[in-house]
Amino acid sequence: MSSSPAATVTALADYAAFAASLADAVRPLSLGWFRRRLAVDDKADESPVTIADREVETALREKIAARYPSHGIWGEEFGKQGLDAQFVWSVDPIDGTRSFITGHPLWGTLLALLRDGQPVVGLIDIPATGERWLGIHDPANGVREARFGGQVCATSPVTSLAQATVYATSPDIFDAVEYARFERLTKAVSRRRFGGDCYAYGLLASGHIELVMEAGLQTYDYLAVAPVVEAAGGVITDWEGKPLTLTSQGQVLAAANAELHAAALACIRGA
């Protein structure tokens, strides 16, 4: 027997509260290593990793397994398990490790809960600033709630590219073809900024910026931000306009609303 909409809403609220409790629990761990001299290893994809990444993910995995032993987990540092489960957690212990190891405060912990392969709960936690975005997005049951620091947040009403601000973590994330498409968009908007990693998606959800365009992301980079952006009223897809899933290729376009998203898609396609 399937759950009623009311029961589903209650369950999602419980999952969101659990995600918040996870972020609370690991904040002291990540902050304990922040702005300390750390050994930095390079992974196979040339991205950096430290003891902080591994320690935080280990703690998250242990707590998820203790509370929801039937759930799957896909984490950045220790891989995936149980992806055939109905519920799967996506874990990025420190999104923005390059920022973390250089003392820049805008790195975060990302958590997402997927139900049947679709992210329905997302959390962006910024330990160094004490900021947090939490989103629940379940269109099938009419649930949409985005909060920043406990208060409801919403995306910008700007629908014109000419009035929009676009963010990307770095120009280095694009290959030559991708960068040409990014340049096409930045010439159409009011301004562009670099930096922020997951923080940029929080800024979008709170209405401070209108667009984020990135490439080369991994599942744990984008799955947590998707429910936050969507619950706040935004749209987030790949560069072809397709929903983000476990098998997306890491090209992400987020916009404050459907009209702006459509305009941005048309722009990067050269239309």
Automatic annotation (TrEMBL):
Record's keyword terms, sorted: Amino-acid biosynthesis, Histidine biosynthesis, Hydrolase, Magnesium, Metal-binding
Q: State the reactions this protein catalyses.
A: L-histidinol phosphate + H2O = L-histidinol + phosphate
Tell me which domain of life the UniProt entry assigns to the organism this sequence originates from.
Answer: Bacteria
EC code(s) of this entry: 3.1.3.15
Q: Which organism is it from?
A: Pandoraea faecigallinarum
Output the Gene3D superfamilies linked to this UniProt entry: 3.40.190.80, Fructose-1,6-Bisphosphatase, subunit A, domain 1
Q: Name one GO biological process term.
A: L-histidine biosynthetic process
- UniProt KW Magnesium keyword: yes
Question: Which residues bind Mg(2+) per the record?
Answer: E76, D92, I94, D95, D221
Task: Tell me if Amino-acid biosynthesis is a UniProt keyword of this record.
Answer: yes
GO MF annotations, alphabetized: histidinol-phosphatase activity; metal ion binding
Name it: Histidinol-phosphatase
